[in-house]
Design goal:
The chain is elongated. With about 290 residues, it is of the alpha/beta class. The strands form three sheets. It has a ten-stranded mixed beta sheet, with no helix packed on it. The chain has a six-stranded mixed beta sheet with strand order 1-4-6-8-10-12. It has a four-stranded parallel beta sheet with strand order 14-16-18-20, with no helix packed on it. Helix content is about 15%, strand content about 25%. It has one domain: Leucine-rich repeat, LRR (right-handed beta-alpha superhelix) (Alpha-Beta Horseshoe). It contains one helix and 20 strands. It comes from Rosa chinensis (China rose). Belongs to the polygalacturonase-inhibiting protein family. InterPro entries: DNA_repair-toleration (IPR053211), Leu-rich_rpt (IPR001611), Leu-rich_rpt_typical-subtyp (IPR003591), LRR_dom_sf (IPR032675), LRR_N_plant-typ (IPR013210). This is Putative non-specific serine/threonine protein kinase.
């Protein structure tokens, strides 16, 4: 009986050690994959005026100690990549899609350009992405609609054009969209399917036509700004009926016409309203309408 017990204990110890070594080897392999992805990004950077990447991202230093990189406590994989305000110039490599544990990605306020590779649709844990204030052009890729955990979607301050892809509005967790200061021409009606969207920024684009009617059914919205586009038509009388939580609404510098809806007084949460520089009637000096309390 004692021999059986000792045999079982030896087996258990060997199994535990083998499992640990296998796990350690797998972790090392995985972090090597993450490192290769970031080194591919480093190779695409053509200007690093602050020497943030060129001098710090070295194979002689653990990747989790690299500037702008944060690893998760559980898996020890890259979970946060924050390169904002580094002043970088370069393009995004497809290898960046090989960061499966990435949750936050902030490349804002740099000079990245070129296309956004389809391989980024593999970032299935991504909740926050900000590529604002760069030099990306062309249409917004439809593959963004594959990032089902995305909560914050920031592409402001680029040169994206065309229609916002309808696939974006399949993202159930999306809470904030900032596409301001681009050259976008259309927002599809599918935007009304975003039941948790709270903030929508699309000011200073080239949007034309009426505002999609479905927006007025989104009770979760707190801030909406369409300022500085080419939108036209009338402002609907039922604008406050379903926008129960709206606090700020900016429709100025467009081509809206007709009377100002009296129902604005029924927007119980509304704190800021901008209707200036339109063709609206009903108030003597429309340029003075900024604030309702």
């Amino acid at each position: 009986m004692e021999r059986v017990t000792w045999f079982f204990l030896e087996y258990l110890i060997c199994y535990t050690v083998a499992s640990y070594l296998t796990m350690a080897a797998q972790t090392k392999l995985n972090i090597t994959t993450d490192r290769s992805a970031l080194l591919a990004l480093k190779a695409r950077i053509t200007s690093d005026p602050q020497n943030m990447i060129f001098t710090n991202w070295s194979t002689s230093t653990p990747i989790c100690n690299w500037v702008g990189v944060t690893c998760g406590a559980r898996h020890h994989r890259v979970a946060d990549l924050n390169l904002s305000y580094f002043g970088l110039t370069g393009t995004i490599p497809p290898e960046l899609g090989n960061l499966p544990f990435l949750v936050n990605m902030d490349f804002s306020n740099n000079s990245f350009h070129g296309i956004l590779p389809q391989e980024l649709d593999r970032l299935c844990r991504l909740k926050f992405i900000s590529l604002g204030n760069n030099k990306f052009t062309g249409v917004i890729p439809s593959w963004f609609g594959s990032l089902f955990k995305l909560q914050v979607f920031n592409l402001f301050g680029n040169q994206f054009s065309g229609s916002v892809p309808a696939t974006i509005f399949n993202l159930p967790a999306l809470q904030k969209i900032d596409l301001s200061d681009n050259q976008l021409s259309e927002i599809p009606n599918e935007i009304g399917t975003l039941n948790h969207l709270e903030k929508l920024y699309v000011q200073h684009n080239a949007l034309k036509g009426p505002i999609p009617m479905t927006i007025f059914n989104m009770s979760s919205l707190t801030i909406v700004t369409f300022y500085g586009n080419n939108l036209n038509g009338r402002i609907h009388d039922n604008i406050c009926q379903n926008l129960l939580n709206i606090q700020a609404l900016y429709l100025g510098a467009n081509q809206f016409n007709g009377p100002i809806p009296s129902i604005f007084g029924q927007c119980k949460q509304l704190l800021s309203l901008n209707l200036e520089l339109n063709w609206l009637t009903g108030i003597h000096n429309i340029n003075c309408i900024y604030l309702i309390t």
